[in-house]
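Quick one:
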Amino acid sequence: MNFFIRQPAWVLFMVLFVLPLLAVLPYGLSGVGLARGLAAIQCLLLIGQMLWVVAMQRFLHPRLPQLARVNMVPFYICTTVALAVYVTVLVVASAVPRFFSSWAFGMFILGFPWSLLAMSPGDLLLFAGLFLLLVNCIYVSRTLRSIELNRPMGPGMGFDYILTLLLFPFGVWFIQPKINRLYHGLTIDDDEVDF
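Output:
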């Protein structure tokens, strides 16, 4: 897990975003079906994002001020269940043709709640996994903000970190330099070293 902490943002972007896309792209464009390819791409990207979030939380938690420490058991339960969901969707979607329908999930994300009724079991599992990823991103954002402030985080703070963690391909460019500064023993606000 230390690999995710030590690397600069561009390496994480390549390893966790570009390489899974390139690895699954021929699978998605072949005759196997677009829905299966999209399911595989989404699951691989979410697994990479989850591993990055877990690595950050394991690195940041010991650096928290004593008053800001939280119980890590719910974080690890969410992580285990979410990874199990992603792997299940990845494996079953490659074998069962109608397990995943990308249009219903996409319509729900775009704000059409009626499409929840048309979701397949794979869509519902992926939605549950995204909710668990959101919980883990809240843990990491609260931890990072508490380290930044050197005190427990107040309510409503850290929404910017949650958003950048959820928008993973873009968020890695903003969050990872802060993690690298902490890894090298600097404070988050030190600008003298560029990674």
